[in-house]
Design goal:
This is Kinesin light chain. Residues 1-33, 170-215 are annotated as: Disordered. One of its GO terms (biological process) is microtubule-based movement. By secondary structure, this protein is an all-alpha fold. Among the domains are: 28-64 and 75-149; 228-348, Tetratricopeptide repeat domain (Serine Threonine Protein Phosphatase 5, Tetratricopeptide repeat, Alpha Horseshoe); 371-439 and 448-490, Alpha Horseshoe (Serine Threonine Protein Phosphatase 5, Tetratricopeptide repeat), CATH 1.25.40.10. Helix content is 80%, strand content 0%. The protein has 18 helices and no strands. α12 (374-389) runs antiparallel to α13. The model is unreliable at 1-24, 167-223, 449-454 and 492-498 (pLDDT under 50).
Length: 498
């Protein structure tokens, strides 16, 4: 019995590893043969047992028929035969018992096989259901991605409409000093998003920060100005990329690029702008080769449409040089940097002129409308951008802090040691990092961050601009504080500052 059990277990183990649906057939046939043979053995043993019992009965009769004076040797022979028959009957009974155990084991195995078949059917059904669920999940994710793209598009359109709404009062407000007021209004019209220059790589390009002044120069020189919707789209893409949501940012860029090429053709400045945005996302993903290809394409379009000495061409050259530097191609980056510097030097005088216009417009707004008028903050933002173009980072930083401090005082009261503007808390978090080597929690420095859900595009833009400036200075914790607050302002409005 033990040999049979071991062999049968080996057969089961071997069968368990089979994946072919035809594999169980030989095993079932073998089991059937074993059961049939076992039944035949039991019948044979029963017959043999009955025969032994009959013989034993005859021997017992013979022994009882012998008289007391019979030959002892004959009695001994008959007794020995009776003992042999008893032992033989014991072996026969043992065989019958083992055969019955084998039959019971066979029945148990049949039940197990039946259960195994049921489990296989259930597993197959579960696999099918899992496959259906995966397909449904994939379809749901695709629908979600489509919905997010639609929402993103609607947000872009909504922000553009809000921007148009903010500039209507400026069109109606004409000062007695016509030339500077006109320049200020034109500059304010470009204040919907001050984090851009040419929609390149602002984090790596100290000169590629946003300025309405740059766009005014571009418009005056070539008749081209980056549309507000592309500026807003840029900031939206940057937000998605900063959250690591490239699965939303990349399709959003590609769809916008496809739409622009359909409406304006490939060789259009707007297409170059969109190529820069997509290159920025690829750069953040570490896809430097793809980003370089897009930037080279954008460079060619801008040179052909805007001219070889346009500031946007300089910014693209600088972005491309930065990208080459990240790939270790410093010899390729150097001539691009030199050419970009030459173009910027040619345009430097224009930025100084823009700075004077903004300074004059700021004085007019403060004198006629007061320091709390929204146009004052917008003009300070634009003036800061013009200062950045000239490398006057300290002066630009001072203006950004003035805007945030004034907004804080209007909402939370006078500044004190316990009532600090967001930029102060940002710099304290940076100092905590530099002193202790760890990031400070918002619980310690983030009361303003948690409370301020602003409803002012200018304040949100200032948060982004000062955050970008902090990053150029290597103050990443301070930058993160301002950027998080700017992102928070998009999700809900609790306070209105203007």
């Amino acid at each position: 019995m033990s040999r049979f059990s071991i062999k049968h277990s080996e057969n089961m183990s071997t069968d368990g590893g089979q994946t072919n649906s035809s594999a169980p057939a030989p095993r079932n046939h073998q089991q059937t043969n074993i059961i049939s043979n076992t039944k035949a053995v039991i019948q044979g043993l029963d017959t043999l047992k009955n025969e032994h019992n009959q013989i034993l009965g005859g021997i017992s009769s013979s022994l009882s028929s012998l008289g007391p004076h019979s030959d002892p040797s004959i009695r001994n022979v008959i007794s020995d035969k009776a003992d042999l028959l008893h032992r033989s009957l014991e072996h026969i009974q043992l065989g019958i018992d083992e055969a019955q155990v084998m039959m019971a084991l066979a029945q148990h195995l049949q039940i197990m096989e039946a259960e195994k078949s049921k489990l296989k059917v259930q597993v197959k059904r579960l696999c099918q259901e899992n496959s259906w669920l995966r397909e449904e999940l994939e379809q749901t994710q695709q629908r979600l991605q489509t919905s997010e793209q639609r929402v993103a598009t609607l947000e872009v359109e909504n922000e553009h409409l809000q921007f148009l709404k903010t500039i209507k009062p400026l069109d109606a407000d004409q000062s007695t000093e016509a030339p500077p007021t006109s320049a200020a209004v034109n500059a304010a019209e470009d204040s919907s998003n001050n984090t851009l220059d040419d929609l390149g790589f602002p984090d790596d390009d100290p000169q590629a920060d946003g300025s309405g002044g740059n766009q005014q120069i571009s418009a005056a020189a070539t008749g081209y100005e980056i549309p507000a919707r592309l500026k807003t789209l840029h900031n939206l893409v940057i937000q998605y990329a900063s959250q690591g949501r490239y699965e939303v940012a990349v399709p959003l860029c590609k769809q916008a690029l496809e739409d622009l090429e359909k409406t304006s053709g490939h060789n259009h400045p707007d297409v170059a702008t969109m190529l820069n945005i997509l290159a920025l996302v690829y750069r953040d993903q570490g896809k430097y080769k793809e980003a370089a290809g897009l930037l080279n394409d954008a460079l060619g379009i801008r040179e052909n449409t805007l001219g070889h000495d346009h500031p946007a061409v300089a910014a693209t050259l600088n972005n491309l040089a930065v990208l080459y530097g990240k790939r270790g191609k410093y010899r390729d980056a150097e001539p691009l940097c030199k050419r970009a510097l030459t173009i910027r030097e040619k345009n430097q005088g224009k930025y100084e002129e823009v700075e004077l216009y903004y300074q004059r417009a700021l004085s007019i707004y403060i004198k006629q409308l007061g320091v709390d008028d929204p146009n004052v903050s917008k003009t300070k933002n634009n003036l800061a951008s013009a200062l950045l173009k000239q490398g006057k980072y300290d002066a630009a930083e001072k203006l950004y802090k003035e805007v945030l401090t004034r907004a804080h005082e209007r909402e939370f009261g006078k500044v004190s040691d316990t009532n600090k503007p967001i930029w102060v808390e940002a710099e304290e978090r940076q100092a905590h990092r530099e002193k202790k080597g760890e990031k400070a929690p918002y619980g310690e420095y983030g009361a303003w961050h948690k409370a301020a859900k602003v409803d002012s595009p200018t304040v949100t833009t200032t948060l982004k601009n000062l955050g970008a400036l902090y990053r150029r200075q290597g103050k990443y914790d301070a930058a993160e504080t301002l950027e998080d607050c700017a992102l928070k302002s998009k999700k809900g409005v609790k306070y209105r500052w203007w």
